[in-house]
Amino acid sequence: MVSVWPTVNPNSENHAEMDRRGLLVGNVRGLPLNLPFWDKGDDGQVFVRFYDPTSPRPQVRLGQDHRGLPTLRHPGVLARRLRAGDAPEDPESTLYHMGRGSEVQCAYPREHARGFAEGLWADGEKDVMLLCRSAWAGSQRYGAAVWSGDIDSTFEALAAQIPPA
Description:
- It is a single chain.
- The protein is an alpha/beta fold.
- The protein contains four helices and ten strands; from the N terminus they run ββαββββββααββα.
- A hairpin with a 2-residue loop joins strand 7 (94-96) and strand 8 (99-100).
- It starts with a strand and ends with a helix.
């Protein structure tokens, strides 16, 4: 299983082009909507931005973007864990291609899963399994299996995740 985040580091090779083309989540106040994050390869927190999965442009579909994501299609990868698929936290300020966050933000996890599933299907993968912390109506058609989120690494916490028969 590969764990993938829907955020783009401003130091990555994709950020400038995605920003220029309007493929990142916007903000109605004009400033970028950022999330402080400890990212690999940086000496401190950087302000990463979420990509916009509601964009109809295929270039934004992370499932179809091979740059920087070669492990998504590795023969040994059977599933993908879509991290932080519950969208940025400020729906009043968030602006997506589909509309204002206060009106469309619930669709974020479904569109996030759809982008990956469609990209993988286009590459010939038949059985797509995406482990997602959030989902919305229709997410299941994209191979989304919903889980409760981060848990402690104990057998008790694992047992609480599995409903009794």
